[in-house]
Amino acid sequence: MRNVLAMVLAAGRVDELSVLTMHRPKSALPFGGLYRVIDFPLSNLMHSGINRVGILSQYRPFSLMNHIGDGAAWDMNGRHNHIHVLPPYKGHKPQDWYKGTADAIHQNLDYIKKENPEQVMILSGDHVYQMDYRRVFEFHNKNNADVTVAFKQMPIEQCSRFGLAHFDENDISMEGGRLVRYTEKPAKPLSNWASLTIYIFKTDILIDIIKNYVGNLGKTDFGRDVLPEIVKSHRVFGYRFNNFWGYTRTIAEYYLSNMSLLGDHPAIDPEQWRVRTNLVHRNIQDRLPALFGNSGNVKNSLVYNGCRIYGHVENCILFPGILVEKGAVIKDSIIFHDTKIKAGATVHAAIIDTDTVVGEGAVVGRKHNVKTNQDLQKKLALLGQDVVIKPNQCVLPGTHISSESDIENYQYSKPSEKLA
User: Fold this and answer.
1) Inter-residue contact 325 to 295 (CB < 8 Å)
2) What single DSSP character describes residue 283?
3) What whole-number distance in Å separates Cα of residue 106 and Cα of residue 101?
4) Separation of alpha carbons 181 and 99, rounded Å
């Protein structure tokens, strides 16, 4: 699809993810034991034959740029293939940064014009899903749409968090149909078709819209400012997507999307999807296979290369390089690269970032019964990068500790409250 240019929105931090995005953008967040969140849309682009890509980056871009490299992991470094990281450039002050999705495209109109595509695809770099974008383009072209937006049905009680499609009931099929209205995060949703932040524009239409709404009117966001208006003046269609879509905006959603990989019937299987990642990043390709010692015990978990397991691991996702010493117990947790869980330590219902140490006999989190996402949001313990939990120290469920925090402030009043 040489006539298509993809623009991947990967600029944000997302405060809801707390210490996990303190040193990286959300799109570079580790996912599923081996991948980064952005690997999923990039792999979708690769398998769909879209190999000219611009990545709109802003917040702490080094981790993302290091991961993207020259794009070779996704076959985007050939004669006609390329991937470019596009930071904001208008000025030197924070107020000159990307102010929203439409403003980010506005700042890169010169790049789009230089590439001269017939169509531009704009998509979020921080969602987990498998989609053949060629089907969306077929739908878009068949309907001679000016703009096509992808949607998925969501529980109505969650829909106030999303942009919503209102379809023309006289012009609709199983694939989708024309939109008569688009509402952004309404307090009282009247539709349950939620936007996936996947847009296809005819290039000339996109340029005209951006110049008018952003350049002339000072609007900044597609969902809030642009889509509700252009539905009235352009041929805007909605494509209906019915497969798994992992939303990772909150801690609970990120955790549950990861845990969807476990069990006998996982909701997603990155290997079956042929998801690509950069194995050079953090030297993953050079690590030895995982080692399981005589005292090691692993149940219903994903464990990747370079891990050394001498303790008990259950319902967990372990990224490369994890050390679990003898007598340590880890349950219902996600552990990022090169973290050490020392002898006799206990970790339960926690997310632990890279290069962290949980000392001997320490306790992080606690077993609990979680009934709702709100409960999960409150009770997951989070440790940031390079945190060192001292021996026999206890960290409360729901505690978020960054590398700059005074860890001494986070202890149980009764250290005996350890996980059985």
Assistant:
1) no
2) G
3) 9
4) 24
Q: In Å, what is the CA distance from 170 to each residue of 178, 179, 193? A: 9, 11, 17
User: Looking at 13-17, 184-188, 252-256, 295-299, which range is the least confident one?
Assistant: 13-17
* HEC secondary structure over 141-186: HHCCCCEEEEEEECCHHHHHHCEEEEEEEEEECCCEEEEEEEEECC
Domain span(s) for CATH 2.160.10.10 in the chain: 287-409
pTM above 0.85, yes or no: yes
The CATH superfamily assigned to 4-259 is: Spore Coat Polysaccharide Biosynthesis Protein SpsA; Chain A (3.90.550.10)
- Quote the pLDDT of residue 96: 60
pLDDT average, residue stretch 41-65: 92
> CA torsion 352→357→363→367, rounded to 10°?
20
Indicate where the chain has its CATH 3.90.550.10 domain(s): 4-259
Q: Give the residue carrying structure tokens 């792999």.
A: 43
Distance, CA of 297 to chain centre: 30
Q: What is the pLDDT of residues 166-210, one digit of tens each?
A: 999 888 889 999 999 999 999 999 999 999 999 999 999 999 999
Give CATH for domain 287-409: 2.160.10.10
Token pair of 238, please?
């909605």
Q: Which residue's structure tokens are 């969602």? A: 127
Residue 247's pLDDT is 87
